[in-house]
Write a structure and sequence with these properties.
By secondary structure, the protein is α/β, with parallel strands linked by helices. It is 42% helix and 16% strand. It has a six-stranded mixed beta sheet, sandwiched between helices.
Length: 153
Amino acid sequence: MAETPIRIFVDGDACPVKDETYRVGERHGVPVIVVSNSYLRIPRSRLVSQVVVEKDPDAADDHIAANVDLHAIVVTADIPLADRCLTAGARVIAPNGKAFTPDSIGVQMATRALMQDLRSGGDIVGGPPPFDKRDRSRFLEALHEAVIQLQRR
């Protein structure tokens, strides 16, 4: 029986680190699958492909969650999607380089719910801090390390 290859799935519509993901995929020979609700410009590479799903807001998340396993790495900032992917056994990394883990996801889900409640009540306005070069660097390091760990397994 052939072993399932490592794959990187990108929650593509609002991902600020697609180019970095392509570079890591190319460096390690790992396929990158960009999942989005619309066509995005992707590099011409045998390792990079795109899946365009319906305009339904959850369609990309549903596609990713249905196709990941222990051999997948998912790049997303979406906490509920991260939870679904962790449940399927995938590794999940946010664009800022922070890993979602089975130990941390419960707190992250609760914090997300609390922040939504506070925002809907008008108590908090705004969102996360701006994305910067350090986030990009942490992401590259985290993705590289996740690929190496899966290749060793």
